[in-house]
Amino acid sequence: MSNASIAERAKQVLFPNYRQAPIALVRGLGSRVWDADGKEYLDFLGGIATCALGHNHPAVRRAVEAQLQELWHASNLVYTEPQVELAERLVSDGHAERAFFCNSGAEANEGALKLVRKWQRENGHPERFEILCAEQSFHGRTMGALAATGQPKYHRGFEPLPEGFKHLPFGDLAAFTAAVGESTAAILVECIQGEAGVRVPPPGFIAGLRKLADERGLLLVFDEVQGGMGRTGKLFSFEWENVEPDVFTLAKSLGNGLPIGALLAKERVARVFQPGTHASTFGGNPVTCSAAVAVYDELENGALVRGALGAQRLWRGLEALKADSGGLVEQVRGRGMWVGLQLADDRASRVLARARDLSLLVNAIGDRVIRLAPSLLVSDGDIDEGVQRLAEAIRTA
User: Fold this and answer.
1) Of 395, 138, 366, which Cα lies nearest the Cα of 251?
2) pLDDT of 361 above 90
3) What H or E segment, with its residue span, contains residue 185?
4) Of the candidates 139, 137, 119, which has an alpha carbon nearest to the alpha carbon of residue 129?
5) CA neighbours within 13 Å on the CB side: how many for 94?
6) How crowded is the C-beta side of 263, counted as CA atoms within 13 Å?
7) CATH of 3-57+303-396 among 3.90.550.10, 3.90.1150.10, 3.50.50.60, 3.30.70.60
8) pLDDT tens digits, one per residue of 96-126
9) What integer pLDDT is reported at residue 1 of this predicted model?
10) Cβ(200)–Cβ(192) under 8 Å?
């Protein structure tokens, strides 16, 4: 089947809710993917910051294949070793003490919203239900996660959204402080805003939120769905801030492309989820958990360090691209293998298409930002080649 024939079939049967490129991917290996017409691409998007170890990583593949020979699914009315092993990995560094598994980042964030309200009620504060969130944030497409998302364009047509969410300017500690009231239960933020164009907060903002939460009896929740599992050069993006959350969520790179999400919390918070309060049929599936254990092992065994070193090379290349762009690139921002290029005009969609013509896959955020999320294991040669192709795409779009 060709790209065109697959696309035509898709248009007859799929919901029309995506703006899809006119290609159908059929194979991936490392930082390369191939479409149905046989064209090869350098993948600097990684399934939107999901394939942190690249496509078809051998250790992840071996873990999945081995588990498929044993057990595909079991309900959460029994234990499975892969789920327990993954939970042990995720709490081993002390950032959390309990883990709950689900299928996506949106589900993990929904669980966090429920956990926050349940915790406040169980601790004698049923009046505390409101959650402070950031403008330009993104937390998912389910109704609660959508209400927490600070981008009105995603809300349109789905109103009325669930109540109890207030959005403040990202990075404005004074605004968050002033917004705390008798009904405030928690603060939910991304330490780096991915869907806003990979925006990093000003120094002191995240630490200030921790202090504010402690002083006012609030829970501090970090959405690590995109920023976690090595994407920024540390295992979790909040580690750059030396701040401990009460609750945080994971997905995306956790399974290196297999669908899995996780809700992590301190013991004092997690204990309010007693039997019957929250559940997931497929959450903690033994196959996806086996994949995630392999991902965790690879990060510990050198992939995290390799990603940090590769990111230095990527950033040097992108800064040189900016300097040579004749003003077409205004800013390079982000952290690690997670970068946003702020363009001087609204050519992002044209750059995206031109890059694809040049066999490079990237992402556009709005009209003026190009987002990059390569594999942590992308080679030096692929980094250099990707930067060269991107520079040409920006220049000729």
Assistant:
1) 138
2) yes
3) strand 184-189
4) 119
5) 4
6) 26
7) 3.90.1150.10
8) 999 999 999 999 999 999 999 999 999 999 9
9) 87
10) yes
Confidence of residue 290 (pLDDT cuts 50, 70, 90): very high
CATH of 74-284, picked from 3.10.310.40, 3.40.50.2300, 1.20.1250.40, 3.40.640.10, is 3.40.640.10
- Token representation of residue 30: 């490392």
Say which amino acid occupies 144.
Answer: G
- The amino acid occupying position 75 is S
Running DSSP on this structure, what letter comes out for residue 195? T
Sign (positive/negative) of CA torsion 346, 375, 354, 20?
negative
Pairing between strand 339-343 and 98-102? unpaired
Say if residue 65 is exposed, middle or buried (CB neighbours under 10 Å; 0-12, 13-18, 19+).
exposed
Backbone angles phi and psi of 214, in degrees to 5: -65, -40
Name the token pair of 280.
């997931």
pTM confidence score: 0.96
Beta strands in 20-67 (DSSP E): 25-29, 32-35, 40-43
What pLDDT is attached to residue 346?
95
User: Is residue 160 reached through a cis peptide bond, with omega within 30 degrees of 0 on the bond before it?
Assistant: yes
Tokens of 290: 């086996």
